[in-house]
Amino acid sequence: MVIKKRAISEEDKLKRRTKILNTAWRLFKQKGGLLPTVSGIAGKAGMSKGTVYLYFKTKEEIFLVLYLQKVAEWFESSIAPVKERKGQLTAEEIARVFTNHVIKNPDVLMMSSIAKSVIEENIGDEALIRAKIASAGLLKASGEIFSASFPGTSKEKGAEITLWIISLITGLWQFASHPPHISKIIKKQNLTVLEPDFAESVTAAVAALIRGSI
Question: How many angstroms from the chain centroid is the CA of residue 78?
Fold first, then answer.
């Protein structure tokens, strides 16, 4: 007698996929920015490694999806206020809009810092192409809003400014953030110039970039 397995519904597949992503994100934050293994993700999610591989080919592919989700959340929280108050916000106000989200949610910057060297280098071309198309779409959307907010700024220039803002924020975070033992050495040697207050510095830096670009 052959026992037929019940087909998994699309809803159940989505729930499993979401559980994998949520578990991976939680472990990533717990590990301080290190990618957990597929075995670790599977164990915490209460499923087998084989099940995880049905949804994602590699652990890097899992984190590419997460990275794009977190960046999209960042953009949405930043773009909406600028769009609502089109042409009414100063460079400083736009800078605060772009930086507030990552100041409160620095984990997205932690992931951004390894996006190219760790994540993108270890995924297939198909997944990479999807990711690049999604990233380009976010930049174009932001570029359109910058163009509408600042007369004389083209959509292409707006997208370019957005790219500069992301690069500046990510780079400054990497420069200003240190593990506790390194931070202790910096303070002991009175080298605090190497560890500026990120929240204060990043908003001022982004405002200066915007003023000089429009």
Answer: 13
Residues 74 and 99 in one domain: yes
C-beta neighbour count of 150 within 10 angstroms = 20
Phi, psi of 196 (to 5 degrees): -70, 160
Same domain, 89 and 45: no
Structure token pair of residue 150: 């600042």
The structure's pTM equals 0.83
Query: What's the chain's length in residues?
Result: 214
pLDDT interval class at 26 (50, 70, 90): very high
Residue carrying the six token digits 């099940």: 51
132 in the same domain as 81: yes
The pLDDT confidence band at residue 1, using thresholds 50, 70 and 90, is very low
- Asked if residue 90 is part of any domain, the answer here is yes
